[in-house]
Amino acid sequence: MRDGLELVADAYEGTEQKPRPALVALSPYGKELQALALTTPPQRRPSPMWDGCIEAGDIARIVNEDYVHVIGDLRGSGGSGGEHIGNYNAGGVSLGQDAYDFIEWVAAQPWCDGNVGMVGISYFGSMQVLAAAERPPSLKAVFVSGGHYDFYETTYHGGIMWFMPRAAREGRGGDSGWAFTDGVKSRMIEEFSPEELKAKVDERLADPDVAGWPNLVHVLNYPKNHEAWFDIVMNQFDGEWYEERNPNELAGQIDIPVWLQLDQGRGWTLDSTIEVFDRVQGPKKLTIGSYPPMQSRPFVEEHDKMFRWYDYWLKGIDNGIMDEPAVDVFVEGSREVVTAEQWPPKPVEHRPLYLRPRHTLSTEPELMGTEFAHPDGFYQAPLTVTDDVQILSWSTPVFEEPVEMIGTGAAHVFVEIDQPDTNFILRLWDYAPTGMRQLITTGYLKASHRELDEARTSEGDPRHPHTRSVPVEPGTIEEYVIRLYPFAATFMPGHRLTAELSNAEPLADEHNSLLPPDAFHLPVGRPVTHKIYRDAEHPSRLVLPFTTQ
Known about the structure:
Elements (H helix, E strand, L loop, with lengths): L8 E4 L7 E8 L3 H4 L24 H6 L3 E6 L10 E2 L3 E2 L2 E2 H13 L4 E7 L2 E2 H12 L7 E6 L3 H5 E2 L2 E2 L2 H8 L12 E2 L1 H5 L2 H12 L2 H4 L2 H8 L5 H8 L5 H4 L3 H4 L7 E6 L3 H13 L4 E6 L13 H11 L13 E5 L4 E5 L7 E9 L3 E3 L13 E5 L11 E4 L7 E15 L5 E9 L5 E10 L30 E15 L4 E7 L25 E6 L7 E7 L2
Parallel strand pairs: 2-3, 2-7, 4-12, 8-9, 9-13, 13-14, 14-15
Antiparallel strand pairs: 1-3, 5-6, 10-11, 15-16, 17-18, 17-27, 19-26, 20-25, 21-24, 21-26, 21-27, 22-23, 22-25
């Protein structure tokens, strides 16, 4: 690197000694782990052999397609030198800067012809965006599958802590985790005095949700065993810590060709992927694939598209790929692929479906007042004392003709709670006549994070700043606007749409069984009674993106 530090890497190439284009993969997960792609058949969830960190791509196929596959360990991880401190930052050096130096080193090697692309999903995908934003001259294009970008949204969904980042860092629930070294350090420990840090830790432990979860109590008391996860737990609000080197914010600096791909079912990641797509300045494509949400490990999907992309941009093969539409979206239900030049791929009109008595959804609002249209409700005890998750649901009548929806949505719910805070977890399902169901999209909101960013909010597209907590006054009725992550679905004749609302997640269901065990959100640590009002004065409703052609 430009400061003299050395990073380690493995390079895989064909037997014929000649310069080739190179595909670079960079992460803190360890290059030796990625080498298992040569010996481990791809695993899908719920296989216990699925390891979420084997994400650098299909080494054998990359070599067979006549590319060099270069897999490197980031600063402060694996066999590389230096320190890794904080978010996308390593000892004061941005990971994008290191990626720039790494790519230019690769391009200068005798086995590389000077044309470089990148490969890999999730963290490897984030590194592609960070690298492209630095504009290294030899990086000619990127193909990003399953990337994570907005780091706050990756870690806190609607202000509710998600445990999956713990798995990626510590190695839990089907992940090997970071290839930790002594160089991985906590930004919080580096920046604050012991006295200041203790005060901040005590403040976090005062949150009953945190205090009721054993792992978080442990992390906060022993941070040097969990440096990266400790920093996330300590930063529950969006702001400077997350904005530093935020790939979403840097995407506007990218002017090389970018293809972004993601499957449905991981809405928070899809939201961020679409934002990056809208911001990049060069030639670009967006592919939104089908459910379910978890790709194989070792990662092998999407290589056909990737090689067509790189054959065009790195090898100069005119395969017609740039004559094809920029956006292609798989629509669940109809199982059609819709193409266009933008997202959403069709004109959309946001229309309401109102919560009505007898757990129904209707296009018509409620006319009666609260005294007649009594609220629905549920009491949720903490999961420390029960495994029973209370769920309210409302359903449409069966659809008589196909109804297509593509885009983001919102849920406006008027709720009274008897505590200063709770979670709202809303899930939309497509129920078939057989009783089988498929998750369509989700929405999350911590009640104390209900403030809206009015400048960025529009109908069916709410935005929350998540920069502070505003406790709820118990006994008051508040309107909560929950963002529903982007989706594409057609509800076929005989099917119905069902909305489920809870403040915790079921421990196992059709969707959760496809995810690693740590794909779970921090539950509420106190008992809460919820009353959901849906009368003439409190028009609780979904606002959904109906296509108009």
